[in-house]
Design a protein that fits this description.
alpha/beta
Length: 232
């Protein structure tokens, strides 16, 4: 199965989005497929954006909040239970112009060592070899900071980021921190990511939601950013 871009020929006519229209675009998300191995995923010819993070970092809540759908991404009460790569299509009028990938959470102690090793290899293969991968959103609990596993992931994707892969760190559960603590957490995370793009996010308080949605829309529609006045 191949997911192609039906609007590719008119892509240059897309107007630049504002936060409201970007949120409307995110709301079009719908389940596409699930796979336990990289080779089981369909070929995707549109931009693909992956969400990764520790099992308790709030990844499912982030996806559900961005798409304004309560149960799009499965949020288990027992972290580490989701062991598949789940793909979601994005696009108005049932046309697919981007795909979201929800990768299994990592680092949860209750998962067996063999499962950890297996999924570690699946994730590495995906992050290194998935051709349609356009951007990565790393979810991190700012109260814990970037852990050793998060930093290992950064090292895996660093060559692709240097080649142009988009990368964003969302510090989730921002509502748990004071403003001063948020400022400190942002500074530390930016140092850890080498000056990369880092933003605060709260699914509960909707902090940073509009900004994240707009950034993802821009990642998926670079042609609109290159020619913002084309629609005129």
């Amino acid at each position: 199965m191949t997911v192609s871009d039906p609007a590719q020929s008119v892509g240059s006519l897309l107007p630049a989005a504002d936060a409201k229209s970007a949120m409307g675009w995110m709301h079009t998300a719908r389940f596409l497929t699930t796979a336990a191995q990289l080779h089981q995923l369909p070929t995707v010819e549109v931009p693909e954006i992956a969400f990764v993070g520790r099992s308790n970092a709030g990844k499912s809540s982030c996806i559900n909040t961005l798409t304004q759908q309560k149960q799009l991404a499965f949020a288990s009460k027992k972290p580490g239970r989701t062991q598949h790569i789940n793909l979601f299509s994005l696009g108005r009028q049932n046309l697919t112009d981007a795909v979201l990938a929800d990768l299994p959470g990592y680092g949860y102690a209750a998962v067996s060592r063999s499962d950890k090793m297996r999924w570690q290899q699946v994730m590495v293969n995906y992050l290194v070899h998935r051709e349609s991968l356009t951007g990565i959103v790393l979810l991190c609990d700012p109260r814990l900071g970037l852990t050793g596993l998060d930093e290992a992931l950064l090292e895996v994707v660093r060559p692709r980021v240097e080649d142009g892969l988009k990368f964003l760190v969302l510090l989730t559960k921002a509502d748990k921190l004071t403003r001063a603590e948020q400022t400190k957490a942002l500074s530390i995370a930016r140092l850890q990511t080498g000056g990369g793009e880092v933003r605060m996010f709260s699914a509960l308080k909707k902090q940073g939601v509009d900004e994240a949605a707009l950034l993802l829309w821009q990642w998926a529609h670079p042609e609109a950013q290159a020619a913002p006045d084309a629609s005129a």
